[in-house]
Each structure stands twice: as C-alpha cells, then as structure tokens.
Specification:
95 residues; 4-stranded antiparallel β-sheet; mainly beta
C-alpha cells in the first residue's frame, strides 16, 4: 500500500525551517483518509509527497472525494500549499 507523506512547517522568506516541521504518513487506498495532525498556529506551509496517484483536499474539513474541492497528485509528485492553523489533509486513491 502506498502512502501520502504530510509535512506541516513554517516558511520564512524563501527557506523552510525544517527544525519545527512535523510529518505523518497517511495510507492511500479506496477509502478517504484524513491526516491525524492539523496545522498549528506557527505553521503556514504544507508539503505533500504522494506515493501513488491520488486526490487530496486541504482545509479545516477536507474532503478528497468532493470533485470541486480537491487536487490531483501523480505518483511520486511533491506539492506545497499555504495553510492556516487548523487545516488538515484528506486523501483518496485516484481511480
């Protein structure tokens, strides 16, 4: 089974400060999964690394199954998003 690596961190100027970054791994399968962590008050950047083609959604109530509120990530794609305190990520395999 493939995973989506979810990392919350703080971006200052053009450099990500890795010392405060937090990462979790979320399974990518046929069931929508929501990351077990949310962005904290000092975190403003979200980095995703997809281990399989998938749909992702970011927000306070993310829904990767909602076709109007998600983004496609290809296998092995890495993407960065701005985030706010309380944001989380949901993921479902792309079919």
């Amino acid at each position: 089974m493939a995973n989506l690596i979810v990392t919350f961190g703080r971006m200052s100027s053009q450099l990500e400060m890795a010392s405060g970054a937090r990462s979790v791994s979320v399974a990518i399968d046929g069931t929508e999964r929501v990351a077990s962590v949310t962005a904290g008050p000092a975190e403003n950047v979200l980095t995703l690394h997809a281990g399989a083609a998938c749909w992702v959604a970011v927000g306070t109530s993310p829904n990767a199954e909602n076709a109007t509120a998600r983004r496609y990530l290809a296998n092995n794609e890495k993407a960065q998003f701005a985030c706010r305190s309380g944001d989380s990520v949901s993921v479902v395999v792309a079919s």
